[in-house]
Amino acid sequence: MKRINALKLEEGKVTVFQRDDVISGLWYANFQLGHGKRHMKSLETTDRAVAEYKAKEIYRKLLVRVDQDLPLRTIKFAEFWDSKWLPFAKKRLSPHRYRLHDITGRLYLKPYMGNRNLDQITTLVAEGYVDWRRDFWLKREDRPKNCAVRPSKKTLQIEFGLLVQSLAWAARESLMRPMGKLKAHVVKTDPDRQRRYGFTSFEWLELATHMEGWQHDGRHRLHNTQRALLRRLIWCYYLTGLRRREMETLKWKGIKPHGDGSRAEITVAADTKTGTRTVISQPDIYNYLPPRGADDDFVWPEGWEPHVSLRKLLDDIGLLKGPDGENRTIYSFRHTYATERLLAGVTYEDLALNMGTSYEQIRKHYSHVVPQERADAITRLDGYSASEIVRATAWLHKEAQANNLDWDALVEQALAAQAKSDAA
Question: Which pLDDT does position 300 carry in this prediction?
């Protein structure tokens, strides 16, 4: 490229010129902004006088940006996200992590930022995402049936972390001014969070029984194969209590036999909601896992979306709606797992450890299981009931009187004998 018809402005700091390789006759400008900073821009006009005027205006605006330590070129957040951040994330992040960025950006981050330029994003704006996102579905009529009205604290933290990660990269690429430490101001508890519902033992029996014949009644062989795979997936959720992403990212190298071999020791991937952990499945898990593949293969087909098929399956047998009128989802099997483990006598602490959550979360969301549904276990006696003890004591007292025995002395002897037995 060779410059022609060049003209110096602003004491030589601005050069307006045309290019010999551009037949349109457009004018361009080159700006020298000090400290080695240079910038070239098309003036988008063929009129020389207009080009001179526009070049001076742009120069003054660029000086302001330099003075404020802002990047010389600014772009909209949406453009940055689609054309710069997502391509970078696709090359550097795992497919599942990239998918999380893609979906969160499309549904929430870009709508929140609107047409805001990157250099207009302040700490206040970035941290304001949490409050905006928390109320996003509150008054919208198009909220999906399986979408919570308010996101959980963990969901807000994850999404905010994606935003922070992208903005930090934008600053490193000199697309915006570096920001200080950003903090997600989330509330500890959500007063609007609804109770979670799984399946009762009778509902689960109905579903499990129905799937045995259902898996063979598809329209063709491929349909039956997909149904059989969905049946296996449902059983694996029921027997492990894993979260959706934990199941989707599960690889064969993360599954090995435990104990008698009917249970599995499952290693959850590190890039999931709570990081890596070990989960012990319920017995018979190997009856429902797909045929084993290579260690680095995913257990379930990558990119498989079973949710529509699950919804139709549940709808066909009248189990789609829970007691709250909302659709049940894959997460309902996790709730079923938690409820049944508590009914079986598993402690809150052990269940929280296996499910990758906190004792407080288990107590908060599943305390309805105890005591109502565990009344028999709670009231089971390891000895005599109060009425039996009273009747026995009354009879012994009567016998002592009939045989002229000293009741107090008998009691002291019995206590002494018990103490001696305990000591031994």
Answer: 94
Over residues 400-421, mean pLDDT = 78
Output the pTM of the full model: 0.52
Q: What distance in Å separates the CA atoms of residue 227 and residue 207, rounded to the nearest whole number?
A: 13
Task: Give the DSSP letter string of 135-154.
Answer: TTTTS-TT--TTS-SS--HH
CA angle 95, 99, 102 (to 5 degrees): 135
Return the number of other C-beta atoms located less than 10 Å from residue 399's C-beta. 12
CB–CB of 43/54 below 8 Å?
Answer: yes
What contacts 329, CB < 8 A, 6 or more positions away? 146, 307, 310
Residue 378 has pLDDT above 70, yes or no: no
- DSSP-derived 3-state class of residue 183: coil
User: Are 366 and 241 in contact, with CB atoms under 8 Å apart?
Assistant: no
What's the CA dihedral at 307, 309, 311, 313 to 10 degrees?
Answer: -140
E-assigned strand segments in 268-410: 278-280
Does the pLDDT value for residue 291 go beyond 90? yes
Tokens of 58: 């742009």
